Amino acid sequence: MKWVKIVLGTIIVLIAIGIITGESVTPNQNEAGNSINSVATNTNEDKKIEIEKLILSDTDIKLDIKDTKNILVNIQPSKADTENLQFCSTNTQIVKFSKDTIKSDETEVYGKLQPISEGKCEIYVKSNEIESNKVKVTVIDKERIENEKRLKEEQAKKEAEEEAKRLAEEQAKKQAQAQAQTQYQPPKQETTTIQPSTPNNNNSRTVYITPTGKRYHYSSTCGGKNSRSTTLSNAISLGLTPCQKCAQ
Question: What is the pTM for the complete model shown?
Answer without folding.
Answer: 0.50
